[in-house]
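During the reporting period the student researcher (J.K.) took over the structure-prediction task from the postdoctoral fellow and processed the backlog of single-chain submissions. One of the processed entries is reproduced below for the supervisory committee.
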Amino acid sequence: MRGVIVPLVTPFNEDYSIDVPALKEHLEFLQKVGVHGIFINATTGEFTSLSVEERKFLAEKGRELVNASFYLVGTASSNTFEVVELTKHAQDIGADYVVIAPPYYCPLNDEALFTHYSMVAERTDIPIILYNIPACANPLSVSLIKRLALEYSNIAGVKETIDSVNHVRDVILEVKGERNDFKVFTGLDQHFLNTLVLGGDGGIMACANFAPEVHLALYKAFQEKRFEEAFEHARRLAKLSRVYDLASSFGSAIKLAMSIRGFSIKPVLRPPYLMDGEEVKEGIRKLLAEVLG
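J.K. obtained the following structure tokens:
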């Protein structure tokens, strides 16, 4: 698995129920344009606002609808046994990978995090992508990632949503250096190109919900060694990533951008998240016009 993977938004109706027709339409669009992977129950998908039953429902519906891309399911929780339950479910429905962020809320040291992930790895067979997102959960150190990757063959990679080139560099050198099938993805649009340059495998990036053509063009240009073109697309992504600075949450930024670009997904977030108002929407509109035309 390599390339452009989309951490999917969860479409909601005005009454906060899941908008299945909009989900189906968006998945058809993303597969038609040629993204390499679909990641459901992601941070961008507001997974912490979904019940276990809803997460299983979305995982099953996604598996039914995704047939042209790798299929990844988020199974993170602050409860280790719930992670095992969700991971077994993803395995049973035929997902290709699970993505697991560390437990959140309570600070944990590396030994506690190792125990958490090892319990999941030992009870399931599906390939696991670790999810390092220090802004929202306990950070995963390079030494912990390396220990997990070398001890468990089903721990298959890491998504790095961390604003540190040095950290990603060290994971690639120290972990991929000893296990070359281990996958390293950035979670930040603005770090897509430098992750590829360092030897990473791609990106799992939220802006690809509404502008996948830019990510795909960058990846294709890089693969074909058309580096000047890749640089230009990277500069566009760097500007586009400022959308996160304009909004109060990932979900608000992405859903407003999708609304502006004409997607049918409604600008509705589940509480406690709030959708930003017209002033933020206008700022995002100006940014998209500048970058995407």
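The committee noted the following: The longest strand covers residues 155-160.
J.K. will present the remaining backlog at the next meeting.
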